[in-house]
Amino acid sequence: MIKLMENILFWCSLSCTILSVQITRAQNLLKDYIQQGLQSNQIIHQQDFMLEKSIYALEEAKSMFKPNVTFSTTYTKADGGRTIDIPVGDMLNNVYSTLNQLTGTSSFPQLQNRNEQLNPDNFYDAKFRVTQPILNAEISYNKKIKSKQIDLQKTEVQLYKRELVKEIKTSYYNYLKAVNAEKIYLSYRKLVVEGERVNKKLFDNGKINRTAVIRSKNEVSKIDASIISAQKTKESAQFYFNFLLNRPLSDSIAVDEITTLPEQDLSLMDNVSAREELSKLKIAKGINEDLTGLAKSYLIPKIGASMDLGSQAFDWKFNKQSRYYLMGVSLQWDLFASGKNTNRIKQAIAEHHAIESQTGYVEQQLLTELRVRQANMLSAIAQYQAAQSQLTTSQTYYKDVALMYKEGMAIYIELLDAQNQWVDSQLQENIALFDTWISYAAIERAAASFNIQK
C-alpha cells in the first residue's frame, strides 16, 4: 500500500513538472514574439523619430543660452538724394586773403563752397557681431518646456508599446484558439468517417436502413466545411499576428499547448496609477505651469550684451582708420501691452484648470475600465469551469451511447447527437480557455502591469 502511494505521488509530481515546463515554454515563446514586435513595429519606429526630434529641440533651446556670432556686410553705391551745403569759401576766403597780404605770398588759395551728398557713395561696412543673453526668462521657460516635451514623447512611445503588447498577446491566443479548433475538427472527422464506413457495412448487411448512411455522409460534408472555416480563421489570425510583428504574413508561428488558466491574483493589479495616460496628463500639467511662467516673464526685463568687430570706409579701404569695435549692453522691459500679457496668463490658468478636471475624469474612466476587465475575467473563468464540466459530462454521455449503439440498444441519430455534443463541448472549452487569457491580457493593459523595458 505504501509503495502504491509513493508511485502515485511520483507520477503526480512528474505530471505537474511537465505541465509547468510546458506553460513556461509557451510564455517564453510569447515573450520572444513580444520583443520582436517591439523591435520591428513601424509605428514605434515613427514614434522614436519623433522622440529624436524632441531631443534636438531641447538641444536647440539650450543653445539659446550660449553666445551667438554672426557676420554681415553692406556695400552702398549712391547718387543724388539729399545734400548738405558747407560754406567753406564764405568762412575762410577773407581770412586767407588777409594772410596772403601779410605774408606777401599766395600760399592760401581761395576755396569754393561745398555741396556734399548725404547718402554714402562707394561705402562698405563689414562686421562680426557677438551677442550674449544675460537675463532672459523666456529662454529659461522654453528650455523647461522642451525638456518636458521629451518626457511626453517618451510616454507616448511607452503607451503605444503597451497597446501593441496587448494586441500581440490577444492575436497569439486567438491563433492558438483557431489551431486547437482545427485539431478538434480533424479529430472529429476521423470519427465521422469511421462512422460512415461502419454504417455502409451495416447497410450492406441489411442491419440498418438507408437513413443512417445518408446522415453519416452529410455529417462528413458538414465537418469538412467546418474544417475549412477553421483553417481560414487560423489563417486570418496568422496574418494579423505576423502583421503586428512586421513579418511576412505567411510566416509560421511556433505554438505550445496552454491547458491551464492564468494566475488569478487580480489584487496585484487593482490600480491605474501606472497608466501612461495619467502620466501624459501630469506632464501636460507641468508644461502648462511653465507656459504660465512664460506668460508672466514679461515682468522680468531682458538684458543682453553685444560686441561688433568690423571695418567701414569708402573705396574699399582697409586700415587703422577703417577698423572699429563697438560694445554695448541692452535692456528691454515690456511696460505696457494693452492687456496682451494679462490675457495670456488667464489663458494658461484656464488651461491648467481644464487639465486638472480632465485628469480626474480620465482616472475614473481608467479605473472603471479596469473593473470591467476584472469582471470579464471572472466571467471567463466561470465560463471555462462550466465548459470543463460540460465536456466531462458530454464525454461520458458519448461513451455510454457509443457502447449502447454497438450493442444495438441505440439508433445512429442518438449516437450522432452524443458525438456533436462532445465536439461542441470541446470547442466551447477551447474557446473559454483562451478567452480567459485574452481577458487577462486586457487586465494587464488596463492596469499597465506588464513590464516593458524603456
TrEMBL record:
Keywords for the protein's UniProt record, in alphabetical order: Cell outer membrane, Membrane, Transmembrane, Transmembrane beta strand, Transport
Entry's localization field: Cell outer membrane
Pfam families the UniProt entry points to: OEP
Gene Ontology molecular function: any one: porin activity
InterPro entries found in the cross-reference section: OMP_efflux, TolC-like
Gene3D superfamilies noted in UniProt: Outer membrane efflux proteins (OEP)
Family matches, as SUPFAM superfamilies: Outer membrane efflux proteins (OEP)
Descriptive protein name: TolC family protein
Lineage: Bacteria, Pseudomonadati, Bacteroidota, Sphingobacteriia, Sphingobacteriales
